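User: My advisor, Dr. K., asked me to get a structural model of this assembly before our group meeting. I'm new to this, so sorry if the format is off. These are the inputs:
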Amino acid sequence: DGGITQSPKYLFRKEGQNVTLSCEQNLNHDAMYWYRQDPGQGLRLIYYSQIVNDFQKGDIAEGYSVSREKKESFPLTVTSAQKNPTAFYLCASSKGTDLLPRAFFGQGTRLTVV
Amino acid sequence: AQSVTQLGSHVSVSEGALVLLRCNYSSSVPPYLFWYVQYPNQGLQLLLKYTSAATLVKGINGFEAEFKKSETSFHLTKPSAHMSDAAEYFCAVSGRLTGGGNKLTFGTGTQLKVEL
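Assistant: The format is fine. Below is the predicted structure of the whole assembly, which you can bring to the meeting.
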């Protein structure tokens, strides 16, 4: 079955460490997105990529980095520069750059700093 | 820039009662609007979308929403709540990204509780 897979589902990080969240899709979608979800704040866009080897900052990119070396993969690295990384992270994809009827979300990764 | 406002972070209804979740939008261009549902520790699932074809949009699980331009609203309704409807609901509007493409801008969410 086609879909988006995020791993791991739960992740614990020590302060000062970098961690990488995985997002893989087999939907042949061109565009991929990372959102951060915090209680009472909805979802906020971190980074997006409309095509392989290209990505753009979203609304809250500071302290994060991404890569898009393959169409299927869009990993997100939460760096030690991110002051408050504990959150639920959601990856999404869509065909082309049109997020209208064809946006799909992964199941999310819950990151906790310990 | 586009934005959405969801009124009421928590809504509680009795099983079998009407569900009404409110969403108002702000957009400088004709908007595309969405409702998503999220169950605990899961991703978002699309309930329905408005893309200007019809003002009354029917979605999955018996939900529907009506686009009212004069009120800049896109409220989500369901005639009879079921226990399985308990979840968090997000309204979203599609907006343009720098360099082309679109992104979804989400409201802050409404947690729906269904009581016996």
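One thing worth pointing out at the meeting: The mean pLDDT of chain A is 90.

User: Perfect, thanks a lot.
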